[in-house]
Design brief:
- The protein is an alpha+beta fold.
- A seven-stranded mixed beta sheet has the order 12-27-26-10-11-1-28, with no helix packed on it.
- It is 23% helix and 30% strand.
- The protein folds into two domains: 195 residues, Beta Barrel (Cathepsin D, subunit A, domain 1), CATH 2.40.70; 180 residues, Cathepsin D, subunit A, domain 1 (Beta Barrel), CATH 2.40.70.10.
Length: 476
């Protein structure tokens, strides 16, 4: 006959087994605390198409790089011609503006103090600023405006201000407060809001874009005298995983997802590399490259690169750029255009870029064909950096699915799973290597070759938390 103690232990064991085998109704508080969410993007109806020299100048200026001789003159000439064309009209009595910043093809809605404002997302900066009621009427016209007086949760950060400049020479400045920011149901109650009181004309002209959300590290924030945390830094403790992913595709709806890495979004395993946060960027080693699936070639010893969704093109070291275009018939370094051009009819080879010595990230040749500059010549989305740092912008993200992990300061790379990318032979070899344990996946993320009962159980628990979606914008 069993003793009362044995019976009690048996009941406790049975309870534990049932608890592990049965779905548990999630605690409401934990649902809010540990979640994942996705954000839908919307088309910027003012998008004017790509301009190669202008995007190159923006990238140089964003990172304070020396600008090659002639590039500024080229962009100034193009801008003057566009303005002249606009003044002449289109023969219908209407005059169409051509804002410089209308290279932002997609933007995304967020809520600040209950008010919806559509903004652009940028992993290369760390400020959340918006159009506000403090601007003049002319600057507000056509924009979604955040009015702190209409918010019951707004609080002024007296004595603080911000002043930020971007790659195209545009900028914003103003004062700072805090308010509730809601993105897809994920909420930060005291998020710093940088309220514009002065803006460059290019921002005012682009009525589909009403501000910017920075997703780099908080040390880049421009608020003075006290830097403020980014939305990602503030929301990170409430996420199921301290991560967001960039699933950015060419000519298709993509998204950023916060709180998990969705294994259905990529092929094979992800490769994770440590990030150097000393400068506030998502920065990592990148020393080699390959062309058209060939063997890796040395680029710049000790080379570093930044993963930046806020830069459209790729700025690589000159050895990489010259090595790539040497394989492109008719390619020339056109001083009048400020960079490499090639015959538009040329079928460009794929490029692969070294990621931390562990992975080669493929960039499709068709994506490097960026913009037409004459009847027969096109401008390349791969151009040379003029500093020690390389910038891997949206052109790379069109093939690569990328995870930004703020918990262990790492980046994960894999190719898109939906036909936007396909593993190269080199990539397949890398995936086989990763299966030996050379790289460590993020906690709670299932990779293609590592799913098992324990991992499946962790996904069930995470899956019990509602996943919300917010589509985000990027430069394309």
């Amino acid at each position: 006959m069993r003793s009362p103690v044995h019976s009690l232990l048996f009941c406790l064991g049975l309870f534990v087994l049932l608890a592990e085998a049965s779905p548990v109704r999630p605690d409401t508080r934990n649902t809010v605390q540990k979640r994942s969410f996705l954000v839908p993007r919307v088309k910027n109806e003012n998008f004017q198409g790509h301009n190669g020299p202008r995007q190159l100048l923006r990238a140089y200026r964003k990172y304070s790089m020396p600008v090659p001789q002639g590039l500024e003159e080229t962009v100034a000439r193009q801008t003057a011609q566009a303005k002249l064309k606009a003044r002449r009209g289109n023969g219908t009595g209407g005059v169409k503006a051509t804002p410089i910043r209308n290279d932002v093809e997609y933007v995304s809605p967020i809520k600040i103090g209950g008010q919806t404002v559509t903004v652009d997302f940028d992993t290369g900066s760390s400020d959340l600023w918006v159009f506000t009621s403090q601007l003049g009427r002319q600057a507000q016209a056509g924009h979604e405006i955040y009015n702190p007086a209409r918010s019951k949760t707004f609080s002024m950060l007296r004595g603080n201000n911000f002043d930020i400049s971007y790659g195209d020479g545009s900028g914003a400045a103003g004062n700072v407060g805090t308010d509730v920011v809601d993105i897809g149901g994920a909420t930060v109650t005291r998020q710093a809001i940088e309220m514009a009181t002065a803006l460059s004309a290019s921002f005012v002209e682009d009525t589909a874009n009403n501000g910017l959300m920075g997703l780099a590290f908080s040390k880049l924030n421009t608020v003075k005298p006290q830097k403020q945390k980014t939305f990602f830094d503030n929301v990170m403790p409430s996420l199921a995983e301290p991560v967001f992913t960039a699933d950015l595709k060419k000519a298709a709806v993509g998204a950023y997802e916060f709180g998990r890495v969705d294994p259905a979004k990529f092929v094979g395993q992800m490769t994770y590399v440590p990030v150097n946060t000393s400068n506030g960027f998502w920065q990592f080693p990148s020393e080699s490259f390959s062309v058209d699936g060939g063997a890796p070639q040395p680029g710049q010893a000790g080379g570093q690169a930044i993963a930046d969704t806020g830069t459209t093109i790729i700025l690589a070291n000159p050895v990489t750029v010259e090595g790539y275009y040497a394989a492109v018939p008719g390619a020339v370094n056109d001083q009048q255009q400020g960079g490499f051009t090639f015959p538009c009819a040329t079928q460009l080879p794929d490029l692969a870029l070294d990621i931390g010595g562990l992975y080669m990230a493929r960039v499709k040749g068709s994506d490097i064909n960026f913009a037409q500059v004459s009847d027969t010549m096109c401008f390349g989305a791969l151009q040379a950096t003029t500093s020690d740092v390389q910038i891997y912008g949206d052109v790379m993200f069109k093939t690569q699915f990328v995870a930004f992990n703020g918990g262990n300061n790492s980046l994960g790379f894999a190719e898109h799973a939906d036909g936007q990318g396909r593993p190269t032979q080199l990539g397949k070899q890398q995936q086989q290597k990763q299966g030996t344990g050379e790289t460590q996946p993020l906690r709670g993320v299932v990779n293609e070759s590592s799913a098992g009962p324990a991992r499946a159980a962790s996904l069930i628990l995470v899956g019990a938390v509602p996943a919300l979606t917010v589509i985000l914008g990027w430069y394309i």
